[in-house]
Amino acid sequence: MKAKEFFERMAKFDPRTKDVRGVEREGRIFVNRRAEAPLLAELAKAGVPAKTVSDLKKKDYKAIVPLLLKWVRECDNDDIRSEIVRLLTVPWAAEKALPVFVEEFGRLKHFDTAVADALANGISAFANDEIFPDLQQWINDTRIGAVRKLLLTGIQRIQNAKAVNLLVQQLNDAETGDTAFGILRKMKTEAAQDAVRACLSHPSPNIRRRAKKVIAVKDRKLKPR
Q1: How far, in whole angstroms, is CA 20 from its chain's centroid?
Q2: What would the pLDDT profile of 129-151 be if each residue is shown by its tens digit?
Q3: Residue pLDDT, tens place only, 77-89
Q4: Euclidean distance between CA atoms 34 and 79, whole angstroms
Q5: Hey, which of 34, 41, 161, 174 has its CA 20 to 30 A from 205?
Q6: Where are the domains of the chain?
Q7: Could you give phi then psi for residue 174, rounded to 5 degrees?
C-alpha cells in the first residue's frame, strides 16, 4: 500500500461503522513496509532481492548474515527487528548471531515486547557454557518478567552443576518454577537426577508431588518387562 492510498483511506475512516482492528492492522503494515524499505534496498545491492524481510525465508541468505546482524543492532521497528532475529535463529548462524543476541538483550529497557521474546528464544536456542553468567543474571532478575521462562529453556543445553543449581533455585518461583522442574526432569546428568530426588523433601507440597511423579515414571521405565 502506498502512502497516499493509506492516508486517503484513513481520512474516510469512521470508527462507528468500520473495522477498527482492520485499520490498525493496515496501519501497522504500512509502518512496517516503510521501516523495512532501507533494508530491502541493501539486500538488493547485496544480491539477495526480496519484497519483504519475511520473504528471505524462501532464499539462501547465509552470505548476508553480517548485514542482518547490523540491522538487529540498528533497527528501531520492533516487528522488523523481531523478524530478523527469527531469521537468524538457525543453527548455521549461531556462532555469529549469539554474541549479538546477548549484547542486544542486555541493552533492552522493556521486556514485554516481541523483540525481547525473539532475542530470548534465539539465546535459548544457542545457549552454551560461555553465556551462562548472563543467563543466570537475567533468570534471577524477577523485574524482567515472563521472558525469564524463555531464557530458562536454554539451561537444558548447559549440562553442568551450576546449571542444575540454578534450576533448583527457580523451583519456588511463581513464573519459572514449572519450567525449571520440567527441564530437571528431562536432564540425564547425575546432578540433575540428584536434584529431582532432593525435591522429595522440598518445603513445597506441589514440588514434592511432582518429584514423586517423575521418580515413579523413571522407576517404571527401569523395571524389566
Answers
A1: 30
A2: 999 999 999 999 999 999 999 99
A3: 999 999 999 999 9
A4: 12
A5: 161
A6: 1-126, 130-225
A7: -65, -35
